[in-house]
Amino acid sequence: MVVNTAGNMANNVALPTIGKELNFRENQLQWVTSSYSIANGSSLLLFSRIADLHGRKRVFLVMMLCGLGSVLGGLMTTYVDTISWRAAYYILAGLALLIAIAGYFLIGPDPPYEGTDRSIDWLGAFKVTAGLTSLLFVLAQAEDAGWSSPYVITLCVVAVILLVTFVVWEWNIENRTSRAPLMRLSILTTGRYPVVISIVFCVFCNFIVVTFWSTIYYQQLRNLPPIQVTLRFLPTAVMGLFITVVAGILLPRLSAQYILMLGCAGVALATLLFAISDPNLSYFAEEFVAFCLSVVGVDLTFATAALYGSSVTRPHEQAMSGGMLNTGQQIGITQSQRRESLDAV
Question: pLDDT under 50 in the chain at which residues?
């Protein structure tokens, strides 16, 4: 979560500089961030199943090291005197390495798998991965190319067909066979989990609006250099770590419903503060408060939703529960990123 949030912040701050150096048009900049959301959101369910089967700690460490390797590969092909905006990604590589090392020593071993079938439904994995990829691509591209564009219409139809057949396929495996589905659909009828996933979707839509427009405001309207923009975002990282701990303390004492309401209120107030902010006031008078409220809202919501999902699913489905939650998050991020990039044009 730390690397994910830091990566999103780095992308937002670096976007104007990336556009200038690589000669990207304004409406092309969103692909810097949308490409990550598409790849991440479309593959989460498959890798969640793999994590449940082969160990969440093992998959976590492998994924962190893969991310580290991809960034270091870019470093080896880049001259030192042309680092500029790339420095943020090298720092993220170091952060990923530190978290992987800490995870190796601090995360306990996974409990034995309690299911009876250790197979992976590869056909279902293909359907949901291809369907989500098509859907996320359409959300990222449709308003730029036009909803009536032939390839957008084609991808919409492909996404619907693949996702509908995935649901039918998984229902059939779960209810009419002894095999294990990729994703047990009955999870979505457990408690209020679909509502919780919807809340996460809406909250992250809102959060991306705040981070995107604040970056545009600082760099294009106030002409602040990237380092000063980064310093203004820095309290969000500190507040995020603090609120994650606070959420863990509050959950045993308060109803998840009230904590989710508090998180949604924090994000809504943050957006309102930015909407009515006065450029003549100091950073700490409004913007600092808005950033803190935004992070409080996002982290309270996500931490509560993740723990709620863990509580309503079986022990050997914990990774899948998190994968479903993060898929909703990535769909919200992709939609919001595209909408805001178009508005900025």
Answer: 76-82, 342, 344-345
Q: How far are the Cα atoms of 15, 94, 204, 206, 210 from residue 295, in angstroms, in the given order?
A: 21, 23, 10, 11, 10
pLDDT of residue 78: 47
What secondary structure does DSSP assign to 165-218, as a single string?
A: HHHHHHHHHHHHSSSPPSS-GGGGGSTTHHHHHHHHHHHHHHHHHHHHHHHHII
Give pLDDT tens digits for 88-117.
677 777 777 888 888 888 888 888 877 777
Name the one residue in this structure whose structure tokens are 């071993």: 109
Task: Give the Cα separation of 204 and 333 in Å (integer).
Answer: 6
Residue 55 region by backbone torsions, left for phi larger than 0, else alpha for psi between -120 and 50, else beta: left
pLDDT given at position 345: 46
Q: Which two tokens stand for residue 123?
A: 């056909």
Neighbour count for residue 279 (Cβ, 10 Å):
9
Query: For the chain, give me the number of helices (H) and strands (E)?
Result: 11, 0
Q: Interior CA angle at 165 toward 137 and 188, to 5°? A: 85
**Cβ contacts of 314 within 8 Å, gap of 6 or more:** 114
In this structure, what are the phi and psi dihedrals at residue 253, rounded to the nearest 5 degrees?
A: -110, -25
- Say if CB 304 and CB 18 are below 8 A apart: no
Distance between CA atoms of residues 155 and 148, nearest Å = 11
Note whether 41 and 136 are within 8 A (CB): yes
